[in-house]
Write a structure and sequence with these properties.
about 75% helix
Amino acid sequence: MSDRYRARAMAPSGWVTRWDLALLPLVIAVFFVLAWAGSHTPAGNYAGANPTLSLDPALLPIYALKTTLRMACALALSFAFTLLVGTWAAKSPRAEKILIPLLDIGQSVPILGFLPFALIWALKFIDDPILSADFAAVIAIFTSQVWNMVFS
């Protein structure tokens, strides 16, 4: 082992590096933007109300941020599902015999095949039509991501 690598290995490692300090404001800003977008989602509509949608170009960044928030929620759900079901199927031979065929069947259904059922279910249990549509969109994004993640 050369002296250069030995010196680096023996150097005391600190809790915080300069890269951590450089990226900390960016991480905090991302959390604040996501919290702000979540707090500005419409609420208080009743089933049957016609929610208004503005076509003002100034609102496009807000709409893009809300779409990004939906995608992040779906990615988090996909990741949690993958960790739960994937590790269960990998560690238990009995669970593997049941879960892998079920996951194959779920993968064979087109993504838009889940959407009507998700939307009907969301409208039945969630009174807000906008929140119901957002939930159905998250389910559609979830089903497009989860199969590749679980089988990997």
